[in-house]
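Is NA7 placement plausible here? Inputs below.
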Amino acid sequence: MPQYDAIVVGAGFAGLYMLHRLQKRGLKVIALEQGSDVGGTWYWNRYPGARCDNESLGYSYSFMPDLDQEWCWPERYSEQPVILRYLNQVADKLELRPDIAFDTRVSAASFDEAASTWTVETQNRETMVTRYLIMATGCLSVPNWPDIPGRDRFGGDTLHTAQWPHEGYDFTDKTVGVIGTGSTAIQSIPQIADQARRLTVFQRTANHCVPAQNCPMPSDVEAERKANYPEIRAKSRYTNSGDFVPQGGTALMDLDEAEQRRVLEDCWRQGGFYTQYPFDDVLTDPRANAIVTAFSHEQIRKRVNDPAIADLLCANSHPFGTKRLCADSGYFETYNLDHVDLVDLNATPITAITHEGIKTSEQLHKVDTIVFATGFDAMTGALTAIDIVGREGAVLRDKWADGTRSLLGVAVAGFPNLFTVTGPGSPSVMINVVTAIEQHVEWIDDCIGWLEENSASVIEADADAENAWVDHVNETADATLYPQADSWYMGANIPGKARVFMPYVGGLRRFRLHCETIAEDGYTGFNIR
Ligand code: NA7
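Reply from A.M.:
I modeled the complex. Tokens:
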């Protein structure tokens, strides 16, 4: 049976960096990746319009200064193929591919207490043994296929945005139904409408959405960034957002009405996450939140011709920003096209999928193609899909059945020598996820280095420390408006999943400093043998 010092599961942003760090440390390490190539999220999500809504100049590794200078991001927000090209370039430059096993899906992992090793099993029935197991499986990697009666009986083409055909899909002359109106749908709907003969969008919940204001990369912005990259990178590591965009500093409620309006207009002009970054109170004070919501609705009504459709598109079910904010490019204007319809599933829910199309309580919508833009089993899906068995037969899936429990989102009591990159309880998806990944990868690598230097063979999160961290994560979320939304942050999009606010909303700076203190103090909160 092959033996390793470390196995990394996944070869996206997290897995590639983890592999590189452990290689540099001189460990015998392999990455196991279910896809046929590197990229993770950016390998799978190839739907039309797929684009990162973090700005290109901040959505890349900070540890490759030469690549920072060489690489040119063509747009303010990068399309999926560009990010995938970037990750391929990284894998080539760092010569990572020889140590990645592709088309290799991990199905089980169990901890051998006597040997202090993990036995890892793949779907191809291979088994291997490792001292450290690092799950770099991504926060948004397991697609959510809703359990709609008759889904398998549909006679046309069924697509899921997160498992898009690599050869693409031609919507020309097709009658198309899109289910879902989250970020992915908002990006893909304008592009699908460009090609399709008829497009019907099935909306259960309108999402808060801001204009992306995407544009070709301004040469002066790129030049300025490249001249100052090292300082900006260093600064981004200690901001709350993990980004170079300044966050906080303005309380909307401290401004008079005219000032509020001026600031909001400025935010909308800048677009993207600038719309929520400046404010300290929008996610904590319902009054401030209501002001942003009202302003946002006003912008939608200006863009959508039919007032009844505009009303449906205005998010009302949850406070602004408490579900992942969507960034649009021409989304609202799509509903002004004669061949595009919006179905309100609150008024007329989907009752079934038939051979011919999507049936609501009102009518059958005949379609050639159904696009499921229905999201992911977020944050935990990839981990609970694997049979992970720790000490004394503890099963991770069972441990998390009533809600995720983790120390720093990086380690779980009962599961020695298992690390999770951007696991639940860490800032992960609440901030620039590449910065979040780098912080976790570096912390894990340092921790493994420390264990090796101190001749320790086992590290495990202490149960009390884990409880204290979970309490802190919950208290931090409860001080905000976030838990008011039925979001994927809460696990609320998956029937039967425990409702617990999973990511840490205390900001990267606080989190990083806390993690640093723990390491400096010899890994307090962890039991080491
Ligand atoms: P999201 O944001 O989870 O959106 C999924 C959408 O699908 C959302 O509008 C859901 O409505 C809808 N949905 C899910 N199940 C159903 C059923 N059964 N019927 C009707 N509609 C349904 O996923 P995305 O892929 O758009 O984005 C995920 C993240 O990727 C995004 O936040 C970025 O970080 C990148 P609901 O709101 O649950 O009522």
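Short version: The first helix runs from residue 13 to 24.
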